[in-house]
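Our consortium's second objective concerns turning raw sequence data into structural hypotheses that experimental partners can test. To show how far this objective has progressed, the report includes one record in full. It was chosen at random from the queue rather than selected for favorable results. The single chain below, 378 residues long, was entered without modification.
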Amino acid sequence: MLLYVAAFIWIVKLKPTRLLFMAFFIKYFANTVVSIVVYLESVFFKVEHTSFGLYYNLILFCLLCVIVPLMFIFIKKVLQPLYKIENNNVWKLLWLAPMLFYILSTVISKQNKVIVSSIEYVIQASILFLISILFYAMILETLRATKEREQAEQNIEKINRQLDAQREYFSTIAKHVDEVRTSSHDLRHHLIAIQGLNNAGNATELNVYINNILSAIPSTNEILICKNLAVNAVSVYYLGIAKKSGIDTDIKINIPEETGIVPAADLCIIIGNLFENAIEACNVMKSDNKFIRIRSKIDGASLTISVTNSFDGLWREKDGKYLSRKGADFTKTESDTQLREGIGISSVHAICDKYEGLANVQIKGNVWVSSAVITFEE
């Protein structure tokens, strides 16, 4: 028994409470199997039970060939995920369940040796064992639901922090563009006024100097993609990055200045993330056929934004979520468990959910289409 326990601890490598859980579970499982074998031995061979008898071991071997694969599946599907749940308070009590089932079955079997060989006891032991399995499955689902809820709360908190940071970032961009526009506009008026005064005094050289300054000041007629200044600023910013990367761009965005219940900062998050993801997808392409096309459409109180871009055709999906390529090589057989959904697309999903909208992705060969739908009104 000491050798058995030492080998068990060395092979299984679990924390003490999990070791006790598995040890009692296996022992209880073994007791149930033995009770079935003893009954079958008495029915088919009409011999007195001996633990190492020929008929006993033959029945045991045949029965284990059927039951062990099923138990392996149960351990793989139910118990193994259960062990991965890190909740020490739960495990302090959970290991008591198989121990109690084991004690109960042992007490019943020791009461009367005749009862152990009866069909009633076999049925009773089998039902009790199935009840224990259902109990573990229910515990697993409860713990899994709790873990998923906690994970969802953490993800929501993380996304909210990301959204706040992105709102601040995009607001800074828009504010900077407005400041540049205002400064340029004011400076132009000042120089025009100086030019008028100088013309009245016939100061030719000063006129030439002022004209040179005026010609060096950029015009306020900057690129106008849409009427919403904040969205326009973000779009112009990423448009410049796309053009520097040699990406063919075609952008037609129709977003008004007034966007109802949706702040411009949230629209900037959608446009900025989808545009940035499209640029990153194009930049990893080895071919020169890189393009990004952005469209928007207003239908009543709904706004649809669609970004179509080229990519190299490599992508991964897990649980309906497309995984980020940052820090990953999709050409290798990398485990999907090491990959996560991109922060950008998760932020877009969060904004769409916030305004009763929908975010969607479609893949057509080497073309990636990301779309987002939101509502402007309550």
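The partners drew two points from this record. Residues 334-338 have pLDDT under 50 and may be disordered. DSSP finds eleven helices and seven strands in the chain. Both points have been shared with the crystallography group to help prioritize constructs.
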